[in-house]
Structure formats: structure tokens, C-alpha cells
Write a sequence for this structure.
């Protein structure tokens, strides 16, 4: 008796995949049905009927067995792709290779250079932790580390406070609120070097527009040399960093505010809660997870900031605005001490690992 394809328990083209699916389902259910499927009798039966009429003679069973073997062993590579595990590895492989080439290799090379006496034109020899011991005794490195931490902490506090205030403002519905939301992104989308040059002109000791405005308002009598002294330069850099990173926090908080249900505020209003109580009891607790993510990512970017500081002060005056990145550039590229410069560049990795830990934990909790 000829068996039509639609009469097969398992269509021919499904092959091994169908067998595995049925075995998996039967394995989950267990019992005699599971053993029957594992033995493939439901597959062999229709095949014996197809090849051997009644399917009970020896020749029919052999032909059915060969056919089943051909079905289950056909295109083993394609059959392996049906596995979610193998397919997952294949899909992740390009991104993993890209990350290894662009991120892991430079990082490993930097760590290796920090353990050698390499200079420009000389690969050097392995010196262990000598470069780290040298930079820890260097007062310029200690000053750079201290200012990098101060720069990061002050900038993050300013960006968090002003960004949240700006998000609360543009979250209101007023005339032109869409345009206001678009304009607040300008500092973020402008190239860093271009915005740094604009601020360099605003803070110029002779042609500063900011000094001109303060003089017109009778707040000062002469121009201020913002970048000519240590603390003036430090606070100027912090202010510019806050201005540049403000949209990042504002947009993040605005997205968080948009996700808070209005029912909570209506229920709080019915209970007689004031605006401050609603913010303290509803808004801030619901924004806490996104705050962790915003602060952690922004801290990583701020701690490793290079373009803004190098364009405006180049680490001066007298190394008062040096941070890890600018000092590493000066020692490795300008000074030619690749090993020492690499050690300075590797030093902030400890801080970034701590910040990354908080990011991962916040994402998991979310």
C-alpha cells in the first residue's frame, strides 16, 4: 500500500528536526508514550508501509530503516542550526569578534605596556609593577587623580540636580514644550571640540563675552581670567562639563517621568499630598533605578574625559587641571614614556569597574 506524504506521521521533509521535537515533547510527558517516541516507532511504521506494503517483511523494514537514517542524518549542519544554543552562538559571534578586536585587544595591550619599560622606538622589557610604583610617588599623578575625582563628583552632582529640574520643567505641557525638548539637546549633540572652543572664547581673559556681560551688569569692574589660575580653571571645566552633560540627564529623567502612571499623582492629590510630598514619595523613588544608571554611565564618561580638558587647558595652568587621560597622553605620546603613560591610563580602571558593578546591579534589579 502506497502511503501519501500527508498520511505520514512525520512528513519526509521535516526529517530529524521533527523527530527531535517529538522526542522532546515525549520526554517532557514521560511514560510509555515517551518510550514509544524515543524508539521512533511512530516514524518507522509509516515508512515501512511506504516501502514494504504491509511493512512487516524483512526487506520493507530494512528499506524503512535506511529511509529513516537518511532523513535523520540529512544535512547535519542545518540540523545543528536548529539548536537554539548553536544558533545563539552564531548570532553572537560577529559582535563578540568586534568587541574583542576593538575593546579587549587595546585594553590587554595597554595593561601589558604598563608592565614594561617601553618607550617610543623601544619595546622595552618586563618590569612588573615598577611603573605603578613610580607614578604613585609622583605628586603630579596624585594631583591628577585628586582632580579627576573632584571633577567627576562635582560634575555629576550638578548634572543630576539641574537635569532633574529641567526634566520636571519640560515634562509640563506648555506652549512650545516640544521645541523646548528639542533645543535642550543642543549641548549634547554639538561636537565636544567645537563646544570647547566656543567656551574658550567665552572665558577668554581679553575678549570674554561673559566678562563683558558681568561688567555691563556692574558686577565686576574688569575682565576675569577664568582659566589663568588653578581653581578658576578647575571650576570653569566643571561648569562646562555640567553644561554639556545636562541633556543626557534631562532626557533620561524625562523618559522616567513619562513612565510614571498619572493615577498615582491623582490618588496622592485626593489624599491631600502636597507637590513636595508627591515628589518625595512617588517621583523620586520611581526614578531611583534610572538615576543609578545615569550617574554610573555619566561618571565613567566624565572620569575618562579628554577632549574638553585638553582643548581648553591642556592640563594647565601648572598641571592644576590634569586628569588621568591628559597626563597619560603627555607622558606616553608627548614624553615618549609608553610604559609609564600606560600605567597612568590603566589606573582609573579600578573606578570604572566599581561603577560598572553598580550599573549591572541596577539593570538586574530593574
Amino acid at each position: 500500500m502506497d502511503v501519501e506524504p500527508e498520511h505520514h506521521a512525520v512528513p519526509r521533509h521535516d526529517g530529524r528536526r521533527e523527530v527531535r521535537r517529538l522526542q522532546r515533547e515525549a520526554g517532557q510527558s514521560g511514560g510509555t508514550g515517551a518510550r514509544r517516541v524515543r524508539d521512533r516507532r511512530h516514524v518507522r511504521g509509516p515508512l515501512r508501509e511506504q516501502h514494504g506494503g504491509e511493512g512487516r517483511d524483512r526487506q520493507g523494514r530494512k528499506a524503512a530503516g535506511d529511509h529513516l537514517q537518511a532523513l535523520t542524518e540529512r544535512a547535519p549542519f542545518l540540523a545543528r542550526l536548529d539548536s537554539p544554543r548553536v544558533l545563539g552562538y552564531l548570532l553572537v559571534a560577529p559582535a563578540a569578534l568586534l568587541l574583542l578586536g576593538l575593546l579587549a585587544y587595546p585594553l590587554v595591550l595597554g595593561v601589558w605596556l604598563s608592565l614594561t619599560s617601553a618607550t617610543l622606538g623601544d619595546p622595552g622589557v618586563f618590569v612588573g609593577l615598577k611603573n605603578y610604583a613610580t607614578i604613585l610617588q609622583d605628586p603630579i599623578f596624585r594631583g591628577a587623580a585628586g582632580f579627576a575625582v573632584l571633577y567627576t563628583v562635582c560634575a555629576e552632582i550638578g548634572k543630576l540636580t539641574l537635569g532633574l529640574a529641567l526634566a520636571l520643567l519640560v515634562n509640563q505641557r506648555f506652549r512650545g514644550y516640544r521645541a523646548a525638548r528639542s533645543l535642550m539637546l543642543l549641548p549634547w549633540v554639538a561636537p565636544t571640540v567645537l563646544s570647547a572652543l566656543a567656551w574658550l572664547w567665552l572665558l577668554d581673559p581679553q575678549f570674554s563675552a561673559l566678562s563683558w556681560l558681568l561688567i555691563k551688569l556692574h558686577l565686576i569692574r574688569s575682565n576675569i581670567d577664568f582659566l589663568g589660575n588653578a581653581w578658576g580653571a578647575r571650576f570653569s571645566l566643571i561648569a562646562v562639563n555640567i553644561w554639556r552633560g545636562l541633556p543626557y540627564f534631562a532626557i533620561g529623567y524625562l523618559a522616567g517621568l513619562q513612565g510614571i502612571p498619572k493615577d498615582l499623582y491623582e490618588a496622592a492629590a485626593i489624599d491631600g499630598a502636597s507637590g513636595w510630598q508627591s515628589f518625595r514619595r512617588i517621583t523620586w523613588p520611581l526614578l531611583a533605578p534610572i538615576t543609578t544608571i545615569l550617574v554610573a554611565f555619566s561618571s565613567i564618561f566624565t572620569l575618562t574625559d579628554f577632549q574638553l580638558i585638553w582643548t581648553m587647558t591642556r592640563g594647565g595652568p601648572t598641571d592644576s587641571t590634569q586628569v588621568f587621560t591628559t597626563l597619560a597622553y603627555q607622558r606616553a605620546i608627548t614624553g615618549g614614556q609608553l610604559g609609564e603613560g600606560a600605567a597612568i591610563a590603566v589606573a582609573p580602571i579600578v573606578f570604572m569597574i566599581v561603577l560598572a558593578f553598580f550599573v549591572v546591579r541596577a539593570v538586574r534589579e530593574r
